């Protein structure tokens, strides 16, 4: 089995050797890596259940949260989460507010120009959710003339924007996904475009209120993200991902959040 701790230690040795020949600016950039202090600072937006949210006690919980903690154990690092609205999470990473992101971030070509991604850790799709008694929307084509909700900065919002131009419907964007579903209940929006796992969470939480209609709009994969110049961290995260998948930890976390 690949030893993630050895990878990190090797990276530290290489960094220390390289550090001796660094300029002052390079040294400052190197010293900003909290991973070298035994702490990995991770950005997340806890408004996207069941991947990341806050429980009644205000604690961060979710599939991504548990997975990140498991990765931290494999890497021998303490995980420190920093909350950040999703539409600003990549700019915050680039500004070094945290070392990496785990927040149901879909791997896309455009995002890959700004950040480095790990291997995929979750497959998803964009779907349409409506009220259970709404028969007017059966597919994406039926969104014409409707008001459609999506979360700011997500691929759900991007996909909705794509179809809005073609079909002609209004998009209402939200920072918090739960607010979109509440507004749908209250008649302020007609449909919600979101990830299938998120839609299913709301269906399970309030049985008889919502349903998913039509075919999936996309096929997507989530990845953790780090800055483009931080391949050392990406390699360490990929090694840890391989370990949690091989030893059954990933399956245990998945079962807790999706098989109940």
Automatic annotation (TrEMBL):
It comes from the Archaea. Residues 39-260 form the Ionotropic glutamate receptor C-terminal domain. The keyword Signal applies. One of its GO terms (molecular function) is ligand-gated monoatomic ion channel activity. SUPFAM superfamilies: Periplasmic binding protein-like II (SSF53850). It is found in: Cell envelope. Pfam families: SBP_bac_3 (PF00497). GO terms for cellular component: membrane. Residues 39-260 form the Solute-binding protein family 3/N-terminal domain. The keyword Signal applies. Keywords: Signal. This is Polar amino acid transport system substrate-binding protein.
């Amino acid at each position: 089995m690949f030893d993630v701790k050895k990878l990190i230690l090797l990276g530290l040795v290489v960094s220390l050797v390289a550090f001796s020949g660094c300029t002052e600016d390079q040294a400052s950039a190197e010293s900003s890596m909290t991973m070298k202090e035994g702490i990995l600072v991770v950005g997340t937006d806890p408004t996207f259940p069941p991947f990341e949210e806050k429980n009644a006690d205000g604690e961060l919980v979710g599939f991504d949260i548990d997975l990140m903690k498991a990765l931290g154990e494999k890497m021998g690092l303490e995980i420190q989460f920093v909350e950040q609205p999703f539409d600003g999470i990549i700019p915050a990473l680039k500004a070094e507010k945290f070392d990496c992101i785990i927040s149901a971030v879909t791997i896309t070509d455009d995002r890959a120009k700004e950040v480095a991604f790990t291997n995929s850790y979750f497959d998803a799709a964009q779907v349409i959710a409506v009220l259970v008694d709404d028969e007017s929307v059966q597919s994406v084509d039926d969104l014409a003339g409707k008001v459609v909700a999506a979360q700011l900065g997500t691929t759900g919002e991007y996909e909705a924007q794509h179809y809005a131009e073609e079909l002609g419907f209004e998009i209402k964007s939200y920072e918090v996904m739960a607010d979109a579903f509440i507004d749908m209940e209250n008649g302020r929006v007609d449909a919600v475009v979101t990830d299938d796992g998120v839609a299913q969470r709301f269906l399970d939480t309030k049985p008889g209120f919502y349903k998913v209609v039509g075919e999936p709009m996309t096929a997507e994969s989530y990845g953790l993200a780090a800055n483009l110049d931080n391949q050392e961290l990406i390699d360490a995260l990929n090694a840890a991902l391989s370990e949690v998948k091989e030893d059954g930890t990933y399956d245990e976390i998945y079962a807790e959040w999706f098989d109940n």
